[in-house]
Structure formats: C-alpha cells, structure tokens
Amino acid sequence: MNSLLPPNSTKFEINFEQTFSRVSAVEIPTRTFNDSMAAPLGVLPFLAWEKSVDVWNKDWTDEQKRQTVASSLKSHMHKGTIGSLETALGSLGFRVKVQEWFNMVPVGKPYTFKLLVETAQDSITATDLKDILKVVNKNKNLRSHLVGQSLTITNECSTYFASTICVGHDLEYLSVNGLYLDGSWLLDGHQDLKGY
Description:
Number of strands: 3
Strand content: 5-15%
Helix content: 25-40%
Number of helices: 5
Order of helices and strands: HHHHEEHE
Number of domains: 1
C-alpha cells in the first residue's frame, strides 16, 4: 500500500490511514436519488413526495412507480387539460383516451367526458380502476365531469399462415410450312432458316 505518512508516524495514524483508504470504494448513490428511473426503490416514495405526485399506491409495480414520478412534472405543468389527464393515466401503464362531450355519439352534455381504457386480457383489477378514478379526479379540470368508462380488453395471440404463388407460361410452338429444327442450326441471329 502506498502511504503519504512520514516514517515517524504513530500506530494510530497508520491504522487511521488504512481504514479510510477503503472509503473511496464505498458507493455513494446520492447522484441517482433525483432520477426516478435510476433511484433505489426505497427512495421512490420520498421522490414522489418531493415531485408532488398526486396519487401513490405502494402496491404498484416498480415500473408504474417510476413512470408516475417521471411524468409528474409534465402532468403538473398542464394540469386541467386532456393532455395532463392522458399523461397521468399513461404513467400507470394503461392506454387511456379521453372522449369529450362534443366527440361522443350522440353528443353528450356539455363539459362531460368518458374514459376509453384499453388493456391486456388480465392486467386490470378493481384496485386499478379505483386508482384510475383517483388520477382522473386529481388531474381533470373542475368544470368537467366523468360520465362513463369504456373498458376494452385485448387478447394478443400469434397467428401463422403460409401461401405460395406459382407463375408460369405454357408455350406451344408449331413449325411454319413443315420447317423443323434438328439441332444443326443455331438460332442466334446469324443464320436464317431457309429464308426466314
């Protein structure tokens, strides 16, 4: 070990140097504490509090927690708009579209909207629906009211198929005036077959 201590160092100074020479090997994760995608899981609830996340559920997946914290700033910047609502709901991992009253068929009452939630076959629970409603109430504008939800469940499966295409021509050549090729002539454009 390299030492910067003088030769007349005490035993305490030598031990102190050896102990603190290993301190540089200890990881310090404080640089990642403010990055929601890189922060340790134990820090995420505190980071959510710092970023003023409106709805938090300790039972969410790690990805949902990280996305919620990451989208919080964008959601707060545009709070009360459709974009804010879709951003906040998208961070939960659901594809959600907001259908405003003038886009409904038939046209709905003014300042009402519906949620069109798309999800995979078994990925939504009653708790998820409650979380969606909490997020909607926190991010919608005050004059608009939720009048309904439409849940679309999709099932993705693989389908296999095969096809072939056969292209060809059937040609039939009939000799003119009894002329025929016996292999002694080449049809390369340099010779004529009896005047042809």
